[in-house]
Design brief:
By secondary structure, the chain is of the alpha/beta class. It folds into two domains: 420 residues, Aldolase class I (TIM Barrel, Alpha-Beta Barrel), CATH 3.20.20.70; 202 residues, no CATH class. 33% of the residues lie in helices and 20% in strands. The protein contains 22 helices and 28 strands. Strand 10, helix 7 and strand 11 form a beta-alpha-beta unit. It is elongated. The relative contact order is 0.12.
Length: 695
């Protein structure tokens, strides 16, 4: 298939998402392709709950602002894995960015060249509110086997399993954040009643009971500030004051690793961890917030917050800016942003130095209660260490991009629960205290004692070294095409947007003939065989694919699933707008199914019409329109557009296979979930349709 830019991300209606969510769970024990075995359902006898800026959360874990928190289904998937503090993808006033593709390289360590949300602000609002509502619906339906809350958690009481916080992330300068559009967006998330009511009305009739649910309209009360690398201190201070005074939000300031200074960063990155191939961007150290200045700035802003009854916290850390010296991203990108394993020791050291410097200079008790959050190279092996260091939340991005995707999330919490059980702890607070007793470090604060010990371990742990993070996923040498592959299914969970999916097909070989068009007549030509090797085929849902490239990174075959596998669109408008791109669009009404497709720069379509007299298969191609006998695979001419050419029954069989598998296959996807009669009565439809389609 031809490689050209993919369409913009586009949300799906809440009806389609809800229909898929409910029926997929009922029939497959999955939600958005995540198996129930990967859902986090709590830990017996242990409460992993925490408080963040005065609000309860069922766990300290969350996805960091990024590719896992942009679309509604992404957020739901993270929540199913145990995320209870969700850092929504950063929004900004400029919501029509052109982002280079591919934009993520997570083969070992991780680099990216993406920025903020790829949706319009109005679409981001819809997705965040939609996710909030879907999570509430899952709670009410008790799909996880945990009873829903009878009332909101009272202040100071142990957090409930379902307590969840959405954290707004915004950037990148004061003018943008103070703009009318961004202020509208912030207000609309702080009080989402209007958007909730709009979406409530879209809940389909088969789920009418969910329309009556009480959806808390106050979705956010905190904001994490993301600024450009090198943002001046006075700009940061102005933004935070605006968010405090005007929006009345708690604020978290994300710190940059460059605050350690270039010499120390190079010593850690090159000398200790061995990443001599990574070139730091010298300009990143020449401007922006410096360490001592940051301590003073945070103290000033915390005093403002104290006066207003609001909290100001800090987060470690942002990515680190390095030169684009690889051949993965477009050469137009001069810098890229490093995350993953090498960032963990860097951020842990910066956080330790900042916490100790800040606390040592604090004069009042309230000022010593600085909330610190962490996001840098977290995985299942170090998650508990970050929690023991008293950091809330602890968020993840890079590790969720690896093989298994969202299925990796619950292992962070399982590892934490296991360590708590070993220390006979029932709460996070008890765990912090108990873990500190096992550390030889002398410090009166248990969290800081644990933090120091974790930092020291990280400096000598080979897991963060280049030697352990230099291999790329292996390729087997074969190349992808429209059908068949090794069917390892890696491409499905590694996609942050859940854009890749599988559909079932028949593997029985089908013999057919090519029909030559000569002088306006059809002449039977050579015999061929249409045969697929795998009963599970892979496809791509175009509205959720942003060409990040992550599925290609982990696919063992060459070509990229998002490029070579059939791409399906949810609307005729989008399919028509992309006239230069190979892809497919399915229409379904009572008595008629149609698949339109572009393959090899040519347009084809197949209509299957059913009525009381029987079934007709009408095949449209550049050569003409033909009625196909679906059993004998013989065409008859309806209209010809050429005098010489072919009626390619092989292309007809491709379209028929795609239509039957994607629309009526037993596996739910974003295409068939749009049609309530197909999804709700799938088991009745399937046998008759297979016969109708000649499958």
């Amino acid at each position: 298939m031809k490689f050209v830019p993919m369409p913009e991300l586009k949300p799906l209606p809440i009806a389609t998402l809800l229909r898929r969510l409910v029926y997929e769970f009922q029939r497959e024990h999955k939600i958005f392709d995540l198996p129930e075995a990967s859902f986090w359902k709590g830990s017996d006898g242990i409460n992993l709950g925490v408080y963040s800026h005065g609000k309860p959360a069922g766990t300290p874990f969350g996805p960091a602002a990024g590719p896992h928190t942009q679309m509604a289904q992404n957020i739901v998937l993270g929540w199913l894995g145990g995320a209870r503090i969700v850092e929504l993808k950063t929004i900004q006033v400029n919501d029509q960015l052109t982002i280079p593709r591919p934009c993520i390289d997570a083969a070992n360590v991780c680099y990216n060249v993406e920025f903020s949300q790829e949706l319009r602000l109005e679409e981001s609002l819809e997705e965040y509110v939609k996710a909030w509502m879907l999570i509430r619906i899952i709670e009410h339906a008790q799909l996880l086997g945990v009873a829903e809350r009878s009332a909101p958690t009272a202040p100071g009481m142990p957090p409930h399993f379902y307590d969840c916080i959405f954290d707004l992330s915004c950037g990148y300068n004061l003018a943008g954040i103070a703009s009318d559009r961004v202020q509208w967006f912030i207000r609309s998330l702080m009080d989402a009643r209007e958007e909730i009511e709009r979406l409530r009305a879209e809940i389909p009739a088969e789920f009418a009971e969910f329309r009556e649910l009480d959806f808390d309209p106050h979705i956010v009360s905190t904001a994490t500030l993301s600024t450009f690398h090198g943002c001046p201190p006075d700009e940061i201070e102005g933004i935070v004051e605006h968010l405090l005074r005007v929006n009345r939000l708690h604020v978290v300031i994300k710190m940059n690793p460059t605050m350690l200074g270039r010499e120390r960063v190079e010593e850690l990155l090159h000398g200790i961890m061995g990443y001599t191939d990574i070139e730091l961007n010298p300009q990143a150290f020449e401007s922006g917030l410096q360490f001592d200045e940051a301590v003073r700035l945070v103290r000033r802003l915390r005093r403002v917050g104290q006066e207003l009854g609001l909290h100001v916290g800090v987060k470690f850390s942002n990515t680190i800016e390095v030169l684009n010296n690889r051949n993965f991203f477009p050469s137009s990108e001069k810098v890229m942003y490093l995350s993953g394993p090498p960032l963990y020791p860097l951020a842990l050291e910066l956080a330790w130095k900042f916490r100790t410097a800040y606390l040592e200079s604090a004069e009042e008790q309230w000022d010593k209660e600085l909330q610190v959050s962490f996001s840098a190279g977290i995985d299942k092996y170090n998650f508990a260490d970050a929690v023991a260091a008293g950091m809330v939340p602890v968020t993840v991005c890079t590790d969720l991009l690896k093989v298994g995707g969202y299925g990796r999330a619950r292992y962070y919490l399982d590892a934490l629960a296991q360590k708590m059980q070993e220390l006979h702890c029932e709460t996070i607070e008890d765990f912090i205290a108990a873990a500190a007793q096992a550390e030889p470090v002398s410090h009166e604060d248990p969290a800081l004692r644990n933090h120091y010990a974790a930092w020291q371990r990280a400096l000598t742990d080979v897991r963060y070294s280049r030697d352990k993070n230099s291999l790329s996923p292996k390729k087997v040498g074969s190349k992808l095409w429209l059908f068949d592959c090794v069917t390892c299914d890696k491409c499905i969970p590694v996609c942050p947007n859940d854009a890749n999916f599988w559909y079932p097909v028949s593997t029985a070989p089908i013999s057919y003939h090519i029909y030559e068009i000569r002088d306006g007549k059809l002449i039977e030509g050579e015999e061929k065989v249409f045969s697929l090797k795998k009963a599970r085929q892979i496809a791509n849902f175009g509205q959720f694919c942003n060409e990040c490239g992550n599925c290609d990174t982990f696919c063992p075959e060459y070509g990229g699933p998002y490029i070579e596998k059939p791409t399906f669109f949810a609307s005729a408008e989008q399919w028509q707008q992309l006239a230069h791109y190979d892809g497919f669009y399915i229409e379904h009404t009572e008595g008629r199914d149609c698949i339109q497709g572009r393959m090899r720069d040519a347009s084809f379509s197949l209509e299957i019409m059913r009525d009381s007299t029987g079934t007709k298969h009408i095949f449209h191609s550049p050569e003409g329109d033909f009625e196909i006998d679906s059993a004998q695979l013989r065409p008859s001419i309806i209209e010809l557009r050429v005098r010489e050419g072919q009626c390619d029954i092989g292309t007809y069989l491709m379209l028929r296979t795609l239509l039957a598998g994607v629309l009526y296959g037993s596996k739910l996807n974003y295409v068939n979930s749009a049609f309530d009669d197909v999804v709700s009565d799938n088991q009745r439809f399937l046998p008759s349709v297979q016969g109708t389609y000649g499958c």
